[in-house]
Specification:
The protein has 248 residues and is of the alpha/beta class. The chain has two domains: 154 residues, Alpha/beta knot (3-Layer(aba) Sandwich); 73 residues, Trp Operon Repressor, Chain A. The strands form three sheets. It has a five-stranded parallel sheet, sandwiched between helices. Strands 3-4-7 form a three-stranded mixed sheet, with no helix packed on it. A hairpin with a 2-residue loop joins strand 9 and strand 10. Helix 4 crosses helix 5. The longest helix has 19 residues. Pfam families: tRNA_m1G_MT. One of its GO terms (biological process) is tRNA N1-guanine methylation. This is tRNA (guanine-N(1)-)-methyltransferase. It is found in: Cytoplasm.
């Protein structure tokens, strides 16, 4: 997959993309990440990318000209990806990013991220994007951090990125539920013991325990997710028994 970041702060990505899973994906040729500084597409001697808003008000607004030139240049140089690309603008007006969206975006060959700053974008810039995406109802300095978050989540969905082939399906939210509790050595720590089922070697029982724990954790901390999750009849029976206090 090719990732293109259109930003005036490409240096912000050095740390997060220079370590861990993202770096390994780049080193292994699974991810190809490029940066385009839209300040390079300005024509005035001071290289201004923003200006005051028409109608007055606080803050500065990103100008359309340099952004249009930058994004169009990226698209022209990567024409081979035209049939399988998505242009994303990082903006609070978009729907909140989810694991389902990460899986969807992982199906494209190219993602182009438009990262803003200051008060926001000139409204005409939105026409460059296929969609806007938000990572939550809070304010950040710019679009670079959301772009990093989305890239990390999407890259985990790409074949070969994670060390273990079954790592992604056991992550929280992968199937709409929170992850089950995990344990490692020692078997007992300060009076807290690892559940015996995990030491039994019975893989069927371990799978069942993990599924049930995932349901319980989700019910306790994010019950809203259960309303959207694809639950089997067995899942529903288990939850109903828990609700009624019946021993499973």
């Amino acid at each position: 997959m090719r990732i293109d970041m259109v930003t005036i702060f490409p240096e912000m990505f050095a740390g997060p993309f220079g370590d861990s899973i993202t770096k390994r994906a780049v080193d292994n040729g699974i991810l190809d990440i490029h940066f385009t500084n839209f300040r390079d597409y300005t024509e005035d001697k001071h290289h201004h990318v923003d200006d005051t808003p028409f109608g007055g008000g606080a803050g500065m607004v990103i100008k359309p000209e340099p952004m249009y030139k930058a994004v169009r240049d990226v698209l022209a140089k990567t024409e081979e990806f035209a049939a399988s690309r998505r242009v994303l603008i990082m903006d609070p007006s978009g729907p909140t990013f989810t694991q389902e969206k990460a899986k969807e975006l992982a199906g494209y060959e190219q993602l182009v991220f438009i990262c803003g700053h200051y008060e926001g974008f000139d409204a005409r810039i939105y026409k460059l994007a296929d969609e806007a995406i938000s990572i939550g109802d809070f304010i950040l300095t710019g679009g670079e951090l959301p772009a990093m978050v989305i890239t990390d989540a999407v890259s985990r969905m790409l074949p070969g990125v994670l060390g273990a082939p079954d790592s992604a399906p056991t992550d929280s939210f992968y199937d709409g539920l929170l992850e089950f509790p995990q344990y490692t050595r020692p078997r007992e720590f300060e009076g807290m013991a690892v559940p015996e089922v995990l030491l039994s070697g019975n893989h069927a029982k371990i799978r069942q325990w993990r599924r049930e724990q995932s349901l319980l954790v989700t019910k306790k901390y994010r019950p809203d997710l259960l309303e959207k999750a694809e639950l089997s009849e067995k899942d529903r029976i288990f939850l109903n028994r828990q609700e009624s206090g019946t021993d499973c």
